[in-house]
Write a structure and sequence with these properties.
This protein is an all-alpha fold. It has two domains: about 100 residues, Helix-hairpin-Helix base-excision DNA repair enzymes (C-terminal) (Endonuclease Iii, domain 2), CATH 1.10.1670.10; about 100 residues, Endonuclease III, domain 1. It is about 60% helix and about 0% strand. The protein is built from 13 helices and no strands. Helix 5 crosses helix 6. The longest helix has 19 residues.
């Protein structure tokens, strides 16, 4: 078995293994354009992608463009997205950001981090997903899976997602960011979940992970 002695070697090996597992990186949220992706990502906060995908068909049948969405009532939006959770906040944000897109951006989603993060309900991670997946602009949005695996793989000691993002951007080549953040999410869901985790299945952590993982595995 190849010995990985440096962090750079570990990073290269991880990227190679993830590329073998996930040569294609489809966005797990159903959408047809930057606007529907933006709304879907907003809905995914504290909600699974699978559930979002069951809600958005009805929402986008009602309105799939900012002009149409702003004409809907907040209550009508909320009644559809309720299964995603946080529906009072999310429905208001979707309605308000749709109006802002019409008033300030000509009805289009801006390919600009600052402009996106200025929209109601759009944080840094949501903006990063839209920038990377809708516009192909390099970004490394960090969710709970990436935060967990960067720590397990001994690539970050970040106590929050902001520090983990900085570490990921420093370690991984920029041209791989957009695919890699999805590959890590896919791997986390399939091989290295937060619950029901097994070091025997999580072969990347078994190869490059922290020594403390073995202690955890031995106790379970």
């Amino acid at each position: 078995m190849t010995t990985l002695t440096t962090k750079a070697e570990r990073v290269t090996w991880i990227m190679d293994e993830l590329l073998k597992l996930y040569p294609a990186t489809p966005v797990p949220l159903d959408h047809k354009d930057p606007y529907t992706l933006l709304v879907a990502v907003l809905l995914s906060a504290q909600c699974t992608d699978a559930r979002v995908n069951t809600v958005t068909p009805a929402l986008f049948a009602l309105a799939d463009h900012p002009a149409a969405m702003r004409r809907q009532s907040v209550d009508d939006i909320r009644s559809i997205i309720r299964p995603c959770g946080l529906s009072p906040k999310k429905s208001k944000a979707i309605h308000e950001l749709s109006g802002i897109l019409m008033d300030l951006h000509g009805g289009t989603v801006p390919a600009d981090f600052d402009a996106l993060e200025a929209l109601p309900g759009v944080g840094h991670k949501t903006a990063g997903v839209v920038m990377s997946q809708a516009f192909g602009i390099p970004a490394f949005p960090v969710d709970t899976h990436i935060h967990r695996l960067m720590h397990r793989w001994n690539l970050s000691n970040g106590k929050n997602v902001d520090q983990t993002e900085k570490d990921a951007k420093r370690l991984f080549p920029k041209e791989r960011w957009n695919a890699l953040h999805l590959q890590i999410i896919f791997y986390g869901r399939e091989y290295s979940p937060a619950r029901g985790w097994s070091l025997e299945k999580d072969f990347i952590s078994a190869k490059v992970g922290r020594k403390s993982l073995w202690k955890t595995a031995n106790k379970s």
